[in-house]
Amino acid sequence: MPMGRRRQHRRDLPERVYFRHNAYYFVARNGEWIWLARDRAIALKKYADINASPIAGGMAAIIERHMREVTPTKAPRTQQNNAREIIPLKRVFGHMEPGEITSQDIYAYMDMRPRIAANREVALLSRIFRYAIRWGLATDNPCRQVTRNPERPRRRHIEDHEFAAVYETATPVIRCAMDIARLTGLRLGDILRLNEREHIRDEGVYIETGKTGKRLLIEWTDNLRDAIARARSLRGSVRSIYLIANQEGQSYTVSGFESLWQRIMAKAISSGKLAERFHFHDLRAFAAHRAENPSELLGHDDPRTTSRIYRRGPRRVKPAR
After folding, report:
1. pLDDT the model gives residue 1
2. Fewest beta carbons less than 10 Å away: which of 41, 99, 178, 199?
């Protein structure tokens, strides 16, 4: 953001406050002169009140309000991603008013950001604008006219021998998490919050997924019972309701678990057992590839979503006669 000219007179006044015609004025970002008061003390108090409102803070204040009121309602992974995504958004758009941002500005932003990161950040900016309209702080969403960068779904397919190589390297608690993931197709955040009180039922494992809110009852199989039983046994004498728990009996954070996962990946690579890393989230596709009804297992209403994103393995076909 270009710096304004240094104030030559009345350096005791805050930024954008001026004394004209025996009164103090605040100049808004749209150029409007707002009368404050004739008395300096009263004027400064009104200036503080104006700048305490989201409107005076422009997009920076709207972004902060979204992070304060909306983001905490999202899944932990989404919260973590949003905290990272707002940094460049705030740096580029924070000083602007909502009405000043055009679709061309957003395209220029996308051109200077990595392709996939730009899509995620603009998606967040679009959600922020929708809430700004709801709050009466904006009248339009310039992101709706913006075409996102084309993306190819992730294609990393885990072979059985790759799963076995990492499984052999992993700690017992990570093995339990891997087994639950390959059997249920649940996302990591959902696996880490599985607990005895809410999710273990006589009929199976019941969960309302954190990302989509889908309610699933995953029926018991011998393998799933075994994975849950082993997870319980690892808690030892530590009292905990969580199935995947640390030594203190607390659930892992997503970032904490992924740090462990990266260490296991590095160990498997360095030992020569694994040639290429994969994400824990890739186990969701691993489960889909082996499920009788992958869309049902993953909680997708539209089978095309499953096919496009999670059916990564080769399809077995018979040769023509």
Report:
1. 36
2. 41
Chain-centroid distance, C-alpha 247: 27
Structural tokens at position 125: 């900016």
In one letter, which amino acid is 297?
Answer: L
One-letter identity of residue 202:
D
Q: What is the tens place of the pLDDT at every residue in 3-22?
A: 345 555 676 777 778 888 88
The model scores a pTM over 0.70: no
For residue 307, the 8-state DSSP code is I
User: Distance between CA 98 and CA 57 in Å, rounded?
Assistant: 10
Which pairing describes strands 33-37 and 215-219: parallel, antiparallel, or unpaired?
unpaired
Question: Dihedral angle at the C-alpha atoms of 61, 67, 70, 76, nearest 10 degrees?
Answer: 180
Q: Where are the beta strands (DSSP E) in the chain?
A: 17-20, 23-27, 33-37, 204-208, 215-219
Per-residue pLDDT tens for 20-40? 888 888 887 667 788 888 888
Q: What is the mean pLDDT of residues 225-250?
A: 88
Tell me the three state secondary structure of residue 139.
coil
**pLDDT tier for residue 125 given thresholds of 50, 70 and 90:** very high
- Measured distance between the N- and C-terminal CA atoms of the chain, rounded to whole angstroms: 68
Looking up tokens 């599985």, which residue turns up?
194
Q: Which long-range contacts (CB under 8 A, 24 or more apart) does 171-175 make?
A: 171/260, 171/264, 172/230, 172/234, 173/231, 173/234, 173/244, 173/245, 174/260, 174/261, 174/264, 175/230
Pairing status of strand 17-20 against strand 204-208: unpaired
Alpha-carbon gap, residue 107 to 148, rounded angstroms: 9
Can you tell me which residue has the tokens 């390959």?
A: 182
Residue 69 CA to residue 135 CA, distance in Å, equals: 12
How far apart (Å, rounded) are the C-alpha atoms in residues 38 and 32?
18
